[in-house]
Amino acid sequence: MVCPSCGYDDYEILKSKGKKNKELLVQCLECNHVYHEIAPEEAYELDVRVIISEFEKSWKTSIKLYSDEYLETGTLLYIDDKDVEVTSIENNDGNRVYECPVVDIKTIWVKSLDTLARIGISIDNQGNVISHKIEVEQEFIISIGDIGEINGLKFKVYGIKTLERNMKKGFAYARVIKRVYGKLLSSKDKSKVKYDLTEYVVKTTSKEKSYN
Fold first, then answer.
1. In terms of Cα–Cα distance, which of 190, 195, 185, 188 is closest to 158?
2. Are 196 and 148 within 8 A, CB to CB?
3. Looking at residues 158-179, what average pLDDT do you find?
4. DSSP 121-179
5. What is the pLDDT of residue 81?
6. Domain that includes residue 90, residue range
7. What pLDDT, on a 0 to 100 scale, did the predictor assign at position 18?
């Protein structure tokens, strides 16, 4: 409760009446202004359903949160002995939202931060796309315009797909990246390689790009 006169939030309760929604008569400890307030309802614990993702695996669990709390994507939580990050929230209306009061949450989606980040790398070689899966540290940074290398082949990053958007400029941490798009560079290209990802590759595929 904030004093309407000076904005100070420390006060003394002079009088209280009512059982469920108590009406309070309070005095500001800063300017001594006396005013009426309705006491906030006491918060209570809720069991909220959680789906944890760890690479291709996922499982259901739950977390206890208080009714007066507010949750948003990107929030870090500790669930089942794991550090996790909220990636999506479903409210009681069945809609996916970026933020929501806890009392209105139906399901929380999170991803484990206790593992390496697994992201896709798609390198376009004039219509033939070479795709890799790599595992790097969660805080590894990839920027648009970076020159990378995998198995001796250099590529330039031109696009990044994160959990929330497609990027054509800027940078992102590996923990939020789903896929990186690059153009294969000529063997004669003299651009300086920023990072060699060869040792981080866990899977490689190659396919022709479809224009249908």
1. 185
2. yes
3. 93
4. EEEEETTEEEEEEEEE-TT-EEETT-EEEETTEEEEEEEEEESS-EESSSEEEGGGEEE
5. 85
6. 45-112
7. 65
Residue 209's pLDDT band (cuts 50, 70, 90):
very low
> Do 92 and 124 fall within a single domain?
no
Domain shared by 61 and 96, yes or no: yes
Go through 65-100 and write b for each residue having 16 or more CB atoms within 10 A of its CB, e for each that does not: beeeeebebeeebeeeebebbbbbbbeeeeeeeeeb
User: Which of the four pLDDT bands, split at 50, 70 and 90, describes residue 126?
Assistant: confident
Cα–Cα distance between 181 and 167 in angstroms, integer?
10
How big is the chain, counted in residues?
Answer: 212
Same domain, 37 and 72: no
Global pTM?
0.57
Number of domains in the chain: 3
